[in-house]
Amino acid sequence: MDDPASTENQWYVAATAPRGDEPSRVLKAEDMFGIFDRHGDIYQVSSSEQGLYQGGTRYLSHLELRINGQRPFLLNSTIKKDNSLLAVDMTMPDLYESEVLVIPRGSVHVFRSVVLLSQARHEHLRLVNYGDRTVNLNVEFRFAADYRDIFEVRGVHRPARGTMLTPDIKDDAAILGYRGLDGEMRRTHIQFHWRPDQLNASSCSTALRLGIRDEIHLHVSVSCACDDASVSQGDYYQAIDRIGADTAASRSSVAHIVTSNEQFNDWLGRSAADLDMLVTETSHGPYPYAGVPWFSTPFGRDGIITALQTLWVRPQLAKGVITYLAATQAESLEPERDAEPGKILHEARSGEMAALGEIPFKRYYGTVDATPLFIVLAGHYYRRTGDRAFMETIWPHIERALDWIDHHGDWDGDSFVEYARHSANGLIQQGWKDSNDSVFHADGNLAPAPVALCEVQGYVYEAKLLAAELAELLGRGKWAQRLRQEAAALKKRFNEAFWLDELDTFALALDGDKRCCAVRTSNAGHALFSGIAAPDYARRTAETLLAVESFNGWGIRTVAEGQSRYNPMAYHNGSVWPHDTAIAAMGLARYGFKDKSLKILTGLFEAAVFLDLHRLPELFCGFSRLPGQGPTLYPVACSPQAWASGAVFQLLQGCLGLSFSPEKPQIRFYHPRLPNYLNWLRISNLRFDDGVIDLALTRHAHDVGINVERKEGDIEVTVVV
């Protein structure tokens, strides 16, 4: 994703002012998301990302509740465990009139709940008088809409903007609007489900008289629409019913995990709920949007990795990701979008700036790794599901992706896949670490293009092996033989060219002159993940990744302490990314280093315990862990983030050695391990082939016992201890 830290990157996320200490509250539904403070308000602060967004545009930039001119005292603020609802409990402070106390503190309870559904925000406000006297309340909502593109909110300056429309004020509604330079008419319809005493273009107020033990309920809906699209006519209660039904339906096909540790269950539950929230139904199936707020849109790499992380618990997500990326696969050479035939999408954006070409990301292909990872996901999806018919439909897209790897991906025919941007406005670095300064030499000098990243060669290696399996399945034997030969040759050449004996790790990259970037980084963990590392090199890399310079107690630093450009507060040069750490842990488990995988699982679990809502963010700073302190937060990290949410499922899969074989069908556990704080773990509703199975795993002194508690269908379970 685009670098929020490097000032050389024109797409960075500006952090011009510090965030407040209180955490934000996030809701998302379909293409809409909202970021609120703990009161449920949207504060009108120019540097804030708070707001209600739809299709890459902020449709509501200000929404404050005031009662008798005062902000209520906050008692509690929480997001429901399934992420469906924001609930806020408040009370009034002491309120005086002419030095006479008319409303004692704590006598009026103010309850506020918010849900999102179908391009609308629905709010329920309940006021209850627990005092010993009748009170007069003036309830006021203040509101505004700035219609800023998400990139403007991120800090990108625009030389010109569209036109704000004259507000349309009705008896019980205010309709705000904006005509963009793209010709689109965007409108915010604020509906008050009662007749306010006063209503204008920026506020609504209503006088209420509340007797002893009386309660009053008010409802507000905010709908977002583009051009002549109709706005939602539903209300809060209808939204609650619909959300409940949708949540139950989506969970019915997903495997559920529960353990003996309630804090671990909280982490699992929040991660699953965040994934549910981030997954958006597209015309091609479900797709996990990358993260809120900056990346609430389809990203190729992020979607693939999230689908890989969660494939064993929700395989239908992987099918949606594959289908979407196949449908958007590049078909022609378009340098301005870094597109080449067969290449897989980097990101897709909507909104005014994308429509006008002010940003290159409307449909942008500047990623070197999404194409081989697309094949990797397809291969693992088949192993997980045995869905041969689907493989037949996407095989032409796999062929195109393989052709891109061999031709456009390999610039000089040396068998390594390299990148250099073609678009003047595109990303300079096109791996997952796409900060401008993320690929460098031991002396700190940046690596000239074209760049061959360490992890990308591993992705290509695994892609060719898995494509060979699929080719054989589909009766393309010559394809399979050639792909296996190419994979074997690549593995040999990679270990010769990238291994750094003096650093006990693989080089970050080869630069355009084929010089090694001799830097200790987390990228080497991906070489274990893909299986391209020679066994002895994998062992030495494992020690390096868990050394104190790399492992900070919570996770693996993107760049090890002591290396040039190391900065624990940098986006990609010393921070810790949960997904990156989980990929390395999966690689460690692949080579049999289960103790190290368990250590990483424990580090990220203990980080989650410290964090608000037990939610792992996109990244956090790489400072060393200190007793009694949680990880240091990164100021503009997305939270929730899809591949951070998926990390716990990948970590468990690696520690359990869990895999699937569709031919039997068979579920396999290879040397399963559980950490000492999990006495048992249950997996229910695990669907495979045409059956479903429930499993109970119990930790013993030297191994893990597995019992089948329920089985429907012909599913075999094997355990190697």
Task: Sum this structure up briefly.
The chain is an alpha+beta fold and 721 residues long.
Overall structural class, as computed from helix and strand content, comes to: alpha+beta
Number of strands: 34
The helical percent reads 25-40%
Low-confidence stretches: 1-8
Taking the sheet with the most strands, its summary is: 9 strands, antiparallel
Instruction: Provide a count of the helices.
Output: 16
Estimated share of beta-strand residues: 15-25%
- What is the straight-line distance between the termini? 40 Å
Please compute the radius of gyration using only Cα atoms: 27 Å
CATH topology of the largest domain: Glycosyltransferase
What is the residue-averaged pLDDT? Answer: 94
Topology:
Layout (H helix, E strand, L loop, with lengths): L24 E5 L2 E5 L14 E4 L2 E4 L1 E6 L5 E7 L6 E6 L3 E3 L2 E4 L4 E10 L2 E10 L5 E10 L5 H5 L8 E2 L3 E2 L3 E7 L5 E8 L5 E2 L3 E8 L4 E12 L9 H16 L4 E4 L2 H17 E4 L2 E4 L11 H11 L4 H13 L19 E2 L3 H5 L6 E2 L5 H16 L2 H22 L42 E2 H20 L3 H22 E2 L4 E2 L2 E2 L12 H8 L4 H11 L32 H13 L3 H17 L31 H4 L1 H10 L1 E4 L4 E5 L9 E9 L2 E9 L4 E9 L3 E5 L1
Parallel strand pairs: 30-34
Antiparallel strand pairs: 1-2, 2-3, 3-4, 5-12, 6-7, 7-10, 8-9, 10-11, 11-19, 12-18, 13-15, 14-15, 15-16, 16-19, 17-18, 20-31, 21-22, 23-24, 25-28, 26-27, 29-30, 31-32, 32-33
Helix pairs in contact: 4-5, 4-7, 4-16, 5-7, 7-8, 7-9, 8-9, 9-10, 9-11, 11-12, 11-13, 13-14, 13-16, 14-16
